[in-house]
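WARN no homologs supplied; continuing
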Amino acid sequence: MRIVSLLPSATELICGLGLRDYLVGVSHECDYPSTFEGLPKLTCSRIPSGLPSGDIDVIVSEQLASDQILYDLDVPLLIELEPDLVVTQALCNVCAVSGNEVARAFGQLCGNPVLINLEPTSLGEVLDSAIQVSVAAGCQDRGERYVKKLRNRIKTVSDKSNEIAKQSRPRVALLDWVDPLFDGGHWSPEIIALAGGNPCLGVKGQPSQRRDWSELIDAGPEVILVALCGFDIARSMKDVRQFVSSKGFLRLKKDAGTRVYLLDGNAYFSRPGPRLVDALEITANALYPDLHALPAGLEPAMEIETRNT
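OK structure emitted
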């Protein structure tokens, strides 16, 4: 079995299923776990590195509006690797090479390879995608055991959160971009609710949406989780500092006493993979540290100091 993964979350699933040795190629964004280092990279981004977040938003918006692609796929390399299984996505053209681009390239491959498009929009669908990959790779029993462990971790958090009275749960908003503002959609509201919060921005199962400051202020979150899409903590810090210094946030801080936590969006929230369960555990610990202990190996959410008004 020769597997190509064109999606970071798929690479994480494949390695979680114990299939690392079958990987022969990955995307340029695949960075976890480190055991696949040295494998050929089949994609690259057309967005220049190091740009401010506002400039990135402009480029992405313009390219999507004109149906231009954001990522290039190395088709000759894909053909050369002769994969039996190719795992990609069609959920978000901003996050990875488009499904249409892969489908066009797939028709040039020899043999009878299998193409899987993963499009999960919830935790449950993420777990289903792990089963889907395991079936395609001929190891469904292993997939079911893997998913059972993930479900048990989710249940542990959910059971503890159920002890919290609904009226005492804080209003929580997750932002996956702050210049401009974008709420966290898809699985983010679900994670907040399972962790014991009351999600007040973002629609479960739906893509992230651009928001203006009036919408965030009207939502009145007592807690804001900043998990910037594709950014780690170091890259996010400048943006979050500007965010908490803005007039809009100072108004929110005055009205709702809002606390802000910074999380590693790239590692935990942006990708529909197994580390969404880590994201749940980190979120629960941030909201209720006395109730939800942080599992070993996970970094806690970083509370950002904000000005009192």
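The first helix runs from residue 8 to 16.
OK
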